[in-house]
C-alpha cells in the first residue's frame, strides 16, 4: 500500500477510537465506531487473497450489525430520557441492547463466532491490531455505562465466553486461532468484573494488551503461524523459546508472573461481593486456557518437537528487529509486585 | 386520512424495507429504496422538516442511489431475481408483509400499544404541532447549529467521508 495512504488510514483508526473514548454525545460515539470500522478494513486486507477478503467481509458484517444495534439502543435511550449524554442509560431495554451490541463488537459469547475466523484470515500484524486496539473502544463504552448494565446478561455472557474461549482453543494448532480464543476468554474475565469494579476491568485490559502484544510480536519475529513452525524456533533464535514459555505462562495466569495479577484481583473482588461459585467456576475454566498454552510451550520450549531433518533449518530473511519486544516481555512477566499501583487506574 | 398520514407513510416505509430485505436482485432493491426514500421524505416533511426532506431526494436518491444504480447495472446478471421468481424470496416477502399487517391491526384495534415504547393507539400518530418554537422553524435552526456549534461534527463526518473514499479505492485496487 502507498505509505501515505496507509498512514492516513491507520491514523483514522486511531482517530475513530479516540473519538469513541473522548465523546460524551452518543451520536459522536457511534460516528467514532463507524470511522474505526471503515478504516480498519483495508488494514485487514493488506494482502489481496480470498482469505483476507472473506475475513474482512465477516468482520465488517458483524461490526456493522453491532453498530446498528447500538444506534437503536441510543435512539430508545433518547426517546425515554430526551438527552444524548452517555452518563446513564435510563431504560433497561436500551441498556440490554447496548450491552449486546458492545458484546458483539468485543467478541463475547454468543457473538464470538467471528473472532477465530477473522483472526485466522488476516496477517499476524493485522491480527495484532484487531485483538488489541479494537477492544479499547467498546470496553471504554462498557466502562462508562457500567452502572446501568443488567448484571444477569453480562455475567452470563462473561462466563460463557470464558468457557468457549477455553474449550474452543483446545483443538487448535493455528496460532492465530489460539490467540483469538484466548482473546474471547480474556474478554470474558474483563466483563465479569465490570459491574463490580470497573477499575479491575481496565487493569485486566492493560495486562491483556501487553501480553497479547508480546505474544504476537514473538510470533512475528519468528514468522510462525502454526504450532509446528513455532516449534522450530529453537534452531533460529533459542532465546525466544524461553521468552515464549514465560509469556505463555503469564497469559495462563500463573503466579509469580504478571498475568496472575488481574485474575487474582478479579477473584478477590468477586468474592468480596459474596459470589463464591462464580469465581470458582471461572478459575476452573481458566485451566482450559492454561492447557493449550502449556501445549504450545511443550512443543516450543520444553521439547525438541519431532520434524524431518530438512525442516530443522528454518529459513527466513535476516532477523527482524522489534525494538518494543524486550520492554514488553519484561512488563508482561514481572509486573506482579507492582499490584498496589493499580489504584492509579481509578 | 390526512390526520393519519404519518402512520400510512410509515406503513409504506416498512413495507418497502421488507421489499428489499427479502433480497431480490439489487436493481429491484434500488427500486423499492426509491419508494422508501420518497415516503421517508414525506414523513419528515409532515414534521415540518421541508429542507431535510428535499435533502433526502437530492442527495440520497439523486446522488447516492443513482451511483448505486449505475454500479448495479454494471454488475447485473442475466436473469435477476424478482420477488416472485424465487420461492424463498417470495416467502420472506409475504412473511414480512404478514407481520406488518398484524402490527397495523394491533395498533388500530387496541387502546395502548407497548412494544418497545408505549403509545396510546392512533392518537399519538397525528401531528398537532410541527415543533416550531413560534418564530423560527426548529429544523432550519438545527441545520444552522450544525455549522456553528457543531463544527466538530462537520469535521469528523467530512473526514469520515474522505477516508471512506480512500478505503474504497484501496480495497478495490486489488494488487
Automatic annotation (TrEMBL), chain A:
Keywords: Electron transport, Membrane, Mitochondrion, Mitochondrion inner membrane, NAD, Respiratory chain, Translocase, Transmembrane, Transmembrane helix, Transport, Ubiquinone. It is found in: Mitochondrion inner membrane. Residues 290-342 form the NADH dehydrogenase subunit 2 C-terminal domain. Signal peptide: none annotated. One of its GO terms (molecular function) is NADH dehydrogenase (ubiquinone) activity. Residues 23-285 form the NADH:quinone oxidoreductase/Mrp antiporter transmembrane domain. It is a multi-pass membrane protein. It is an enzyme of class 7 (translocase). Belongs to the complex I subunit 2 family. PANTHER family: NADH-UBIQUINONE OXIDOREDUCTASE CHAIN 2 (PTHR46552:SF1). Core subunit of the mitochondrial membrane respiratory chain NADH dehydrogenase (Complex I) which catalyzes electron transfer from NADH through the respiratory chain, using ubiquinone as an electron acceptor. Essential for the catalytic activity and assembly of complex I. Core subunit of respiratory chain NADH dehydrogenase (Complex I) which is composed of 45 different subunits. Interacts with TMEM242. This is NADH-ubiquinone oxidoreductase chain 2. It comes from Equus caballus.
UniProtKB/TrEMBL annotation, chain B:
It is a multi-pass membrane protein. Its main location: mitochondrion. It comes from Equus caballus (Horse). Keywords: Electron transport, Membrane, Mitochondrion, NAD, Respiratory chain, Translocase, Transmembrane, Transmembrane helix, Transport, Ubiquinone. The keyword Mitochondrion applies. It comes from the Eukaryota. GO terms for cellular component: mitochondrial membrane. This is NADH-ubiquinone oxidoreductase chain 6. Core subunit of the mitochondrial membrane respiratory chain NADH dehydrogenase (Complex I) which catalyzes electron transfer from NADH through the respiratory chain, using ubiquinone as an electron acceptor. Essential for the catalytic activity and assembly of complex I. Its EC number is 7.1.1.2. It catalyses: a ubiquinone + NADH + 5 H(+)(in) = a ubiquinol + NAD(+) + 4 H(+)(out). It holds the Pfam family Oxidored_q3. It is found in: Mitochondrion membrane. The chain crosses the membrane at residues 5-21, 27-44, 51-71, 83-108, 146-169. Belongs to the complex I subunit 6 family. GO terms for molecular function: NADH dehydrogenase (ubiquinone) activity. The gene is ND6.
Amino acid at each position: 500500500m502507498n505509505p501515505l495512504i496507509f498512514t492516513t488510514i491507520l491514523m483514522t483508526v486511531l482517530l475513530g477510537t479516540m473519538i469513541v473514548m473522548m465523546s460524551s454525545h452518543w451520536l459522536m460515539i457511534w460516528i467514532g465506531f463507524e470511522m474505526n470500522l471503515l478504516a480498519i478494513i483495508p488494514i485487514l486486507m493488506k494482502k489481496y487473497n480470498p482469505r483476507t477478503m472473506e475475513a474482512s467481509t465477516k468482520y465488517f458484517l458483524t461490526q456493522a450489525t453491532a453498530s446498528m444495534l447500538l444506534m437503536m439502543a441510543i435512539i430508545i435511550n433518547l426517546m425515554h430520557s430526551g438527552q444524548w449524554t452517555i452518563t446513564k442509560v435510563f431504560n433497561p431495554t436500551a441498556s440490554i441492547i447496548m450491552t449486546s451490541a458492545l458484546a458483539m463488537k468485543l467478541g463475547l459469547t454468543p457473538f464470538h463466532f467471528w473472532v477465530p475466523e477473522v483472526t485466522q484470515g488476516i496477517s499476524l500484524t493485522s491480527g495484532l491490531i484487531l485483538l488489541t486496539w479494537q477492544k479499547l473502544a467498546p470496553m471504554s463504552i462498557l466502562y462508562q455505562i457500567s452502572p446501568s448494565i443488567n448484571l444477569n446478561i453480562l455475567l452470563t455472557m462473561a462466563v460463557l465466553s470464558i468457557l468457549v474461549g477455553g474449550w474452543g482453543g483446545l483443538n487448535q494448532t493455528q496460532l492465530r486461532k489460539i490467540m483469538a480464543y484466548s482473546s474471547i476468554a480474556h474478554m470474558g474475565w474483563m466483563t465479569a468484573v465490570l459491574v463490580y469494579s470497573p477499575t479491575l476491568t481496565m487493569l485486566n485490559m492493560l495486562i491483556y494488551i501487553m501480553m497479547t502484544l508480546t505474544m504476537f510480536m514473538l510470533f512475528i519475529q519468528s514468522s510462525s503461524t502454526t504450532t509446528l513452525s513455532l516449534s522450530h524456533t529453537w534452531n533460529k533464535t533459542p532465546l525466544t523459546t524461553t521468552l515464549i514459555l514465560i509469556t505463555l505462562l503469564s497469559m495462563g495466569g500463573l503466579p509469580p508472573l504478571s498475568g496472575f495479577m488481574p485474575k487474582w484481583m478479579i477473584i478477590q473482588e468477586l468474592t468480596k461481593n459474596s459470589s463464591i461459585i462464580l469465581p470458582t467456576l471461572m478459575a476452573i475454566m481458566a485451566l482450559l486456557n492454561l492447557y493449550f498454552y502449556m501445549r504450545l510451550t511443550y512443543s516450543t520450549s520444553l521439547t525438541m518437537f519431532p520434524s524431518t531433518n530438512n525442516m530443522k533449518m528454518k529459513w527466513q530473511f535476516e532477523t527482524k528487529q522489534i525494538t518494543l519486544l524486550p520492554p514488553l516481555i519484561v512488563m508482561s512477566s514481572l509486573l506482579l509486585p507492582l499490584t498496589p499501583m493499580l489504584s492509579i487506574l481509578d | 386520512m390526512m390526520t393519519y398520514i404519518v402512520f400510512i407513510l410509515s406503513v409504506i416505509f416498512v413495507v418497502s424495507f421488507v421489499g428489499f430485505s427479502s433480497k431480490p436482485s439489487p436493481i429491484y432493491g434500488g427500486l423499492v429504496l426509491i419508494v422508501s426514500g420518497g415516503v421517508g421524505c414525506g414523513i419528515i416533511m409532515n414534521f415540518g422538516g421541508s429542507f431535510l426532506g428535499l435533502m433526502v431526494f437530492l442527495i440520497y436518491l439523486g446522488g447516492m442511489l443513482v451511483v448505486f444504480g449505475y454500479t448495479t447495472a454494471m454488475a447485473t446478471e442475466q436473469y435477476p431475481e424478482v420477488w416472485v421468481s424465487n420461492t424463498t424470496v417470495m416467502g420472506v416477502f409475504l412473511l414480512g408483509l404478514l407481520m406488518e399487517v398484524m402490527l397495523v391491526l394491533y395498533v388500530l384495534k387496541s387502546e395502548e400499544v407497548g412494544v418497545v415504547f408505549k403509545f396510546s393507539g392512533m392518537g399519538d400518530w397525528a401531528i398537532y404541532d410541527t415543533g416550531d418554537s413560534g418564530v423560527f422553524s426548529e429544523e432550519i435552526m438545527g441545520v444552522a447549529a450544525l455549522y456553528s456549534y457543531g463544527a466538530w461534527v462537520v469535521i469528523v463526518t467530512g473526514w469520515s467521508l474522505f477516508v471512506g473514499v480512500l478505503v474504497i479505492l484501496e480495497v478495490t485496487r486489488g494488487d
